[in-house]
Amino acid sequence: MGLSDTLAARFDVESHGSDVRTELVAGLTTFLAMSYIIVVNPAILSDAIQIEGYGQGEVFQMIAIATILSAAIGTVVMALYANRPFGLAPGLGLNAFFAYTVVLGLGIPWQTALAAVFVEGVAFMLLTLVGARKYVIQLFPEPVKRSVGAGIGLFLLFIGFQELQIVVPDDATLVTLGGIFGNPWAILGLLGLAFTFGLWARGITGSIVIGILTTAAVGWGLTLAGVFERGVITPETLPSAQYDITPLAGAFVDGLGQIEPLTFVLVVFTFFFVDFFDTAGTLIGVSQFGDFLDEDGDLPDMDKPLMADAVGTTAGAMLGTSTVTTFIESSTGVEEGGRTGLTALAVAGLFVASLAVIPIVAAIPSYASFIALIVVGVMMLQGLVEVDWDDPAWAVSAGLTVTVMPFAYSIADGLAAGIIAYPLIKVAVGEYDDVAPGQYVIAALLVVYYVLQTRGVIL
């Protein structure tokens, strides 16, 4: 029996109406669609993670390696345990929450933030093992679950616009439009963004990574041609290759000893909430493309892909990166015919192979990397169509969830606003029986937390 026959038998490819070649092509397609995270995740996390004795470029490479390894681990579990064609990697939105809200905003050490991700992953694993998913789902208001993706999308858009210097600080209005066409950094970012949106609109596979690499190549071309000096639109110096991640891996252990209980619980809660519902929503959404759902609209044996997600998150925290989640870009591979875990195994193998380009990723300018945030942010806004805007409780809860995230620069604060608002409006319109007891409890606890937090009693 050849390798092809062995793989076909191991993943039961024929009974899923597929073949080995189709599965491998689907894996390549999914990888190209989601591989931008190899560059974008370290671009975000390296703003918050600083390691004594190492420059930002070296830390960037460490995080890139952690990103690749955590993606490979989670996706291998998805392949071998769940036998589903889904790719996993550190998720956009949660890495921004990790860096800009938890570490830079709240002043929590990055090691402690990794500890929160680790605890969230373990909790996710335990709840999945005991089959408690349906009980957890009941605790959260439906409008918050439906709108959280769009809120994260706006959060990513706001960060991306700032990083490209399209939006800049202003004393009078807090933010304003930057001097784009007097700023080569912003010009290149804007042109790269337009190019990437064009590729995406035409349905080009890997449009985001193509946009990032093309924009970076233009920046380097202009620098090497002498139009700009080094350090203007390209890094002034490039670090040597850094494959040693021991200063990063295992740092979560130190973080476990630096916990402020109430704030730590809120951070874990936010990581868990977003990871849980983002993964569940992505699994259902991608499964629709592959006709994997049963007659009730559920994914059979859903606990298995959820476990893969939890294992990826836990492993990622141990290696030194933020929450791992199932990528919606997996739908591209499913559309190519991927139906089994062999697709996911191909994705994992390609992630491992990408370790060879680690020395190159630090050469990609930030304006090229952050194009991805704006493109993905726009894609995530489609979640707004799932909100019942005619229902007052839905409108207020979802509206606050979506808008507070970018305005407060925090996914956690947006979630809290929506969770608190839902029972208040339901009571106001006399529909208090529609609110589960657990939803009242969570809302009350969040009110207490924010009273203490905004009065400076806790961090």
From TrEMBL:
Its main location: membrane. Keywords: Cell membrane, Membrane, Transmembrane, Transmembrane helix, Transport. GO terms for cellular component: plasma membrane. Coiled coil: none annotated. It comes from the Archaea. GO terms for molecular function: purine nucleobase transmembrane transporter activity. It is found in: Cell membrane. The chain crosses the membrane at residues 20-39, 59-81, 88-108, 114-136, 148-168, 180-201, 208-228, 264-286, 306-328, 340-361, 367-385, 397-423, 435-452. It is a multi-pass membrane protein. Belongs to the nucleobase:cation symporter-2 (NCS2) (TC 2.A.40) family. Azg-like subfamily. PANTHER family: XANTHINE/URACIL PERMEASE C887.17-RELATED (PTHR43337), XANTHINE_URACIL PERMEASE C887.17-RELATED (PTHR43337:SF1). This is Xanthine/uracil/vitamin C permease. It comes from Halorubrum lacusprofundi (strain ATCC 49239 / DSM 5036 / JCM 8891 / ACAM 34).
